[in-house]
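Suppose you are handed a protein chain with no further information: no name, no annotation, nothing but its sequence. What can you learn? This example shows the usual starting point.
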Amino acid sequence: MLYKDEEWLREAYEENTVEDMADMADCAPATISKYMNMYNIETDSTNNAKGGEHTDEDWLRGKYIDEKLSQKEIADIAGVHKGTIKYWLDKHDIEIRDKSDAAKIRAERYPNTWGTENIRDCNWWEDASEEERQAVREQLSEERTGEDNPMWNKTGEDHHRWKPDKPPRRLYASKAWEQARQKVLERDNHCCQACGMTEERHKEVFNQGIHVHHIQPVSAGGPKFDADNLVTLCNEHHHRYEGLYLRPDTRG
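A reasonable first move is to predict its three-dimensional structure. Written in structure tokens, the prediction is:
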């Protein structure tokens, strides 16, 4: 809360009355006085007409609307706290631009610093407020969605992170996969279709459950849950048949 910030109290009081500060901080004047006393900030009871060029509506409109300066830039010019500028913008009913508009203006004024590669190196980044930084982040995010994203609508082999024979992990955590797996295990009598190892023996040897293998990998277009594309294999034969697109011949 502003009224608890000693630095803000000291800076704001240089150019504003206690009543104005109370409006800025959305609290009672008595609250401002309480915290000023707490921080031993001397007050001048005879000076209730503090002001500066930033309090002038025409001057403020010129800087904010015509020159499109940010609240912080105007505050730096006027030598006051940024919250003071926001207070006077509100007081004069000057509509405050949203984060998206602020980011676009920033991009127009600093075209050479607009990008993820050097965004943190631009001169204004360190001095920008968190609100301004967030506006930039959101703008960059918007530019990288939809058709503006070079990887938009690219899947499978066209995507730079595509890896063959590697179905998504979430597949094996799904209820549909568990149902398909159990169906295949029952069909294959819980035995490896290459060597006949039972699931019970498999757990003793490999300390894990027996595998249900995709004959044609999901990443290559194979159906995920179709029993005809699934077969029960032990750990050893699972590795042997990976990528072969073949079903073990059990005709004897």
